[in-house]
Specification:
With 302 residues, this protein is an alpha/beta fold. The chain has 12 helices and 8 strands. Bound molecules: 3-hydroxy-3-methylglutaryl-coenzyme A (HMG) and magnesium ion.
Length: 302
């Protein structure tokens, strides 16, 4: 039995755009969020409050947040690596903060310049402060399916980080395939470990699509009853600290899959395709979404 409803969190404005070397205007970032909410997205990861020296593209975080015309029922989340990031998130009135620990030591060092254990201690006050302010805490487990520096990542390592994040108060756990190497069997095994500790309603998958496995991996998750996924409009993005990794699976492709399965998303696929075309045009390229390109080609056919 597959879920009857799936929640998609569009992480394109953050995970997608963070990887862009070219300038993207504040106005275009705001317009992207507005279009996503008009298309029916109810959870949007807008930006990150990380060091602008590390990720210059996100330096306009406060301006983007300040420019949003918020829609009731939409949750706006931001990535926060430490208390400095949290202060920014609080001032920007984010609804939710995203903390992120790696299941691989090597990646933790490259991404946030500290060990896994140190990162957990940095996130502890962030989670506490977020809760004190009524904000939800999402946690991502990076490199859960493989690491660009150390290769294989064990199931035990993933399970350990899941438990540590829960231990500091994470409300939600996202299992992330940062470099998109996972295949369905391994994804099922990793998710089964996570499900030992995390209720289905607070467990999600975050699949980069580097090896083209993301849709299959999402289907494997659906078969387990998992019904929340991070996706990225137009397949934008990647991680600056995972060279060669492509963006998250395109929101358009996942919506097409889900609607084909009779699973409700609350998302209007036509509007979503318009949104993907909008941001892709702003970036000067085609969407990285088979569904989007097929639908745009069909529309253009007399
Ligand atoms: P650090 O250099 O070790 O930190 O960086 P520090 O505490 O020594 O501070 C150095 C400087 O950064 C100081 O400024 C701080 O004030 C400033 P200076 O005195 O040199 O002028 N600083 C900050 N500025 C703004 N906002 C902040 C902040 N913190 C410190 N929050 C740090 C440590 C974590 C800050 C750094 O490594 C960093 O920002 N890394 C960015 C990591 C990142 O954004 N990675 C991509 C997102 S994660 C991802 O994509 C994975 C995910 O999608 C899931 C998946 O796919 O796996 C979530
Ligand atoms: Mg990611």
């Amino acid at each position: 039995m597959l879920p009857t409803h799936v929640t998609l969190v569009d992480v394109g404005p953050r995970d997608g755009l963070q990887n862009e070397a070219q300038a993207v205007s504040v106005a275009d970032k705001i317009e992207l969020v507005h279009r996503l909410q008009s298309a029916g997205l109810r959870e949007i990861e807008v930006t990150s409050f990380v060091s602008p020296k590390w990720v210059p593209q996100m330096a306009d975080n406060a301006q983007v947040m300040a420019g949003l015309q918020r829609q009731a029922g939409v949750r706006y989340s931001v990535l926060t690596p430490n208390m400095k990031g949290f202060e920014g998130a609080l001032a920007a009135r984010a609804d939710e903060v995203v903390i992120f620990a790696a299941a691989s030591e090597a990646f933790s060092q490259r991404n946030i310049n500290c060990s896994i254990a140190e990162s957990i201690e940095r996130f502890r006050p962030v989670a506490e402060a977020a809760k004190a302010h009524g904000m939800k805490v999402r946690a991502a487990v990076s490199c859960a399916l493989g690491c660009p520096y150390q290769g294989e990542v064990s199931l035990d390592a993933v399970e350990d980080v899941v438990q540590r994040l829960q231990g500091i108060g994470a409300d939600h756990i996202g299992i992330a395939d940062t470099i998109g190497v996972g295949t369905a069997g391994r994804v099922t095994a990793v998710m089964a470990r996570a499900m030992k500790h995390v209720p289905l309603a607070e467990l999600s998958g975050h699949f980069h699509d580097t090896y083209g496995q993301a849709l299959t991996n999402i289907y494997a998750c659906l078969a387990l009853g998992i019904h929340t996924f991070d996706t990225s409009i137009a397949g934008l993005g990647g991680c600056p600290y995972a060279k060669g990794a492509t963006g998250n699976v395109a929101t358009e492709d996942v919506v097409y899959l889900l609607h084909g399965l009779g699973i409700a998303t609350g998302i209007d696929l036509d509007r979503l395709v318009d949104t993907g075309a909008f941001i892709s045009t702003a970036l000067g390229r085609k969407p990285v979404s088979r569904v989007s390109n097929a639908m745009l080609a069909k529309r253009a056919t007399p």
